[in-house]
Amino acid sequence: MAYSAKIGPSILSSDLSCLGSECVRMMDCGADYLHLDVMDGHFVPNITFGHPMVECLRKSVGQEPFFDMHMMVSRPEQWVKPMSAAGANQYTFHLEATTNPGNLIKEIRESGMKVGLAIKPGTTVEELAPWANQIDMALVMTVEPGFGGQKFLEDMMPKVSWLRSQFPSLDIEVDGGVGPDSIHKCAEAGANMIVSGSAVISSDDPRSVIALLRTVVAEAIQKRSLDR
Ligand code: DX5
Ligand code: ZN
After folding, report:
1. Of the residues 37, 40, 68, 171, which is catalytic?
2. What is written in the cofactor note of this entry (predicted)?
3. How far is the CA of 109 from the centre of ligand 1 (A)?
4. Using an 8 Å Cβ cutoff, are 140 and 156 in contact?
5. For residue 197, what are the domain limits?
6. Which of 128, 143, 182, 211 has the lowest tally of Cβ within 10 angstroms?
7. Residue 166 maps to which CATH number?
């Protein structure tokens, strides 16, 4: 099986005035990658940060941590080159935000980043499917994008199961309301890249939460490989 369990804390709900040290803290607690939420106030009703912040973060945390950029922006084409230059590793854009996903996928690859494709809760997985063989990761949102700390939408799980059945080696990420209470559903459905914001960041023991999430997902992956 090509994919493995990976846990990527979302630093949205951390103390944003200490973003560098928060990222280091998450990596020290066993995070596999960092999920960085970019919001432009248009695609979602909230604003976070852009490529200048990513450039500073990269300098501060070094070359090692993998930056998965969750681009909740209206014109994702605009930020491909700046994000690549700033040190992003993966550019995850929303299908709803572009009229030409094929061209955007090509531009992201040419700039040297991996390609993630995200869908909001109202977007069907059939709309994502035509691109699945050209991307590195599919992100199934499990809340409406825009804010941390929302309730996990369990009814998104059939999308994950369908994707897993159709694309057995694709990286599938879930994002929104994921933590110890909802991880079993995600793992069982076939997600392997797990974004967790408030459940990890606000925990007294983030290391244990990250380890728990990874164990549940790794066990589900193992079970699936035995069942095949
Ligand atoms: C929501 C963001 C998420 C969010 C996750 O729009 O894309 O990454 O920060 O935070 P929790 O896990 O608290 O829902
Ligand atoms: Zn996100």
Report:
1. 37
2. Binds 1 divalent metal cation per subunit.
3. 25
4. yes
5. 6-227
6. 211
7. 3.20.20.70
pLDDT digits (tens, 9 = 90+) for 129-183: 999 999 999 999 999 999 999 999 999 999 999 999 999 999 999 999 999 999 9
Q: Whose CA is nearest to atom 9 of ligand 1?
A: 148
State how many domains the chain has: 1
Integer CA distances (angstroms), 147 to 48, 120, 141, 199, in order = 10, 13, 12, 14
Domain annotation covers residue 1:
no
- 68 labelled ligand-binding: no
Instruction: Indicate if ligand 1 lies below 6 Å from the C-beta of 87.
Output: no
Number of the ligand closest to the Cα of 146:
1
Q: Is 38 in the pocket of ligand 1 (CB under 6 A)?
A: no
Tokens of residue 207, six digits: 């290391």
Please write the tens of the pLDDT for every residue from 22-75.
Answer: 999 999 999 999 999 999 999 999 999 999 999 999 999 999 999 999 999 999
Q: How many CB atoms lie within 10 A of CB 198?
A: 18
